[in-house]
Specification:
Helices cover 58% and strands 10% of the residues. With 452 residues, the protein is an alpha/beta fold. The protein has 3 domains: 115 residues, no CATH class; 113 residues; 161 residues, no CATH class. It comes from Ramlibacter cellulosilyticus.
Length: 452
């Protein structure tokens, strides 16, 4: 048996600890299993085309419970409902969406005559000091103080040209919007809305959000390092005693001559196991995409399918050039064509890698849950709850009817199928190493990875 055949056997036998648990056996079992399980069961029945009255009622009752629970404890949903309920919050959100552009606009207008570079060399005088203060207020986003300062300068010793420039700033709609947003920010409902946003985690663009992003990147890098080490170890087991033909590579990206991947398709690949040939090219044997958490695979699944389909367009008798760090690799087109997805499934030599010890596998994904709660019927249901009434679950039937036909809900409709496919294709590096060690007859070798 060739080393490649032994590797294929190891992949087949490797433990799949991230598999989805089965859905409940029937609607009664689903109802008894809880809200998430009931919704997942009913949604899958719609996807399979066998949903009947019992599944529809199970869905609407369970969705009503989900909305009720979210209104009590989900800050993101509470913020969404508050935005729909309160006109001040809705206006604030609309203004906040354009705030960055408005800030740039006002800063640019002020820079035109009050930038420190334009004030350099001026004789120290009251207008000069006032303009420096105006510039500082624009940079700090102190819009009410900026308006006061601009009015003060315009009514002082400013010449006609400066008065015209100050008038332009004061009359600009961008400043009016910023002032309106600043005023609304103090409203109790807006303060409540901002508190709900803060409860969801760091706001985008803040240092805290950047720190969270760096931590997530480090977690992904740690998985990638373990997979790279595992592939290098397996490469050593596959090599003949005096020939090093197999090796691991990291961060593969087509480097030229191959068309770029279409929008939404993966175009960079985390870790690969390769076999070199005598001509200096190589065959791709394994391809791993690394995830810090199992749930990330389902949301990435469409990108993975698109990326593999793109690689599979390679000509079978030509090599494709890849960059892997500072290295350049020529990969046989035939081995890339073997990556083509079939019937929505990926080939066995491609898998997700993760190192998390998962305690609970959700039957309803967080993404599907969020999409359901964004439906207009769910928000209307929640508004009635917030007003102290008890709406009937049947009011949520439009969501059930939209599942099979509305494009916006397609990720919800496919959520169970997608999660099962993605998790079935996920391995822990330790499980792969254990299976490979057994297949290659290397007892006790799982803990001795080879350096790359």
């Amino acid at each position: 048996m060739s080393p490649e055949e032994v590797l294929a056997r190891a992949l087949e036998r490797a433990a799949r600890r991230y598999r989805m648990p089965p859905l409940p056996a029937d609607a009664d079992a689903a109802a008894a299993a809880g809200t998430d399980a009931a919704l997942a069961f009913a949604i899958e029945a719609v996807r399979m085309g066998n949903a009947a009255t019992q599944e529809r009622e199970l869905f609407t009752r369970s969705l009503a419970r989900l909305v009720t629970q979210a209104l009590a404890g989900d800050a993101a949903f509470q913020a969404l409902v508050l935005r729909e309920q309160d006109a001040q919050v809705a206006t604030f959100v609309e203004l906040a969406a354009g705030e960055a552009a408005d800030r740039r606009r006002v800063a640019s207008l002020v820079d035109a005559f009050a930038h420190p570079g334009k004030l350099r060399g001026r004789a120290p005088d009251a207008p000069g000091e006032g303009l420096a203060a105006l510039h500082a207020l624009a940079r700090a986003g102190e819009w009410q103080a900026l308006r006061t300062q601009a009015r003060s300068l315009a009514g002082g010793d400013a010449d006609d040209a400066l008065r015209a420039q100050l008038a332009t700033v004061l009359a600009d709609p961008a400043l009016a919007r910023l002032l309106r947003a600043a005023g609304l920010r103090q409203a109790p409902a807006v303060q409540r809305y901002l508190a709900l946003l803060a409860a969801q985690g760091p706001l985008a663009g803040t240092e805290a959000a950047a720190q969270r992003g760096r931590e997530a990147a480090r977690a992904g890098d740690a998985v990638e390092a373990q997979v790279l080490q595992a592939f290098a170890t397996i490469a050593g087991w596959m090599d003949a005693p005096h020939a090093r033909r197999h090796r691991a590579a990291q961060g593969l990206r087509p480097a030229g001559g191959f068309p770029p991947a279409p929008h939404g398709a993966k175009d960079e690949w985390d870790v690969a196991l390769l076999r070199d040939d005598a001509a200096g090219a190589c065959e791709l044997l394994l391809l791993a995409e690394c995830k810090a958490a199992p749930a990330a695979a389902a949301s990435d699944w469409p990108r993975l399918l698109g990326g593999l389909a793109h690689l599979a367009q390679a000509a079978p008798d030509e090599d494709v050039l890849f960059a892997a760090g500072t290295e350049r690799l020529r990969v046989h087109g035939a081995s890339l064509r073997a990556l083509a997805p079939r019937d929505g499934a990926i080939p066995p030599q491609v898998f997700y890698a993760c190192c998390v010890e998962e305690q609970r596998v959700p039957l309803l994904s967080a993404a599907a849950r969020a999409l359901l709660l964004q439906e207009r019927a769910c928000i209307a249901f929640a508004r009635e709850l917030a007003q102290g009434t008890q709406p009937a679950p049947e009011q949520l039937q439009p969501v059930f009817e939209a599942l099979a036909r509305e494009r916006r809900l397609r990720p919800v409709l496919l959520q169970d199928d997608t999660a099962r496919r993605a998790r079935e294709a996920m391995l822990h590096p330790a499980d792969l190493l254990a299976a490979a060690a057994e297949a290659f007859g290397v007892p006790g070798a799982q803990g001795r990875p080879r350096n790359t």
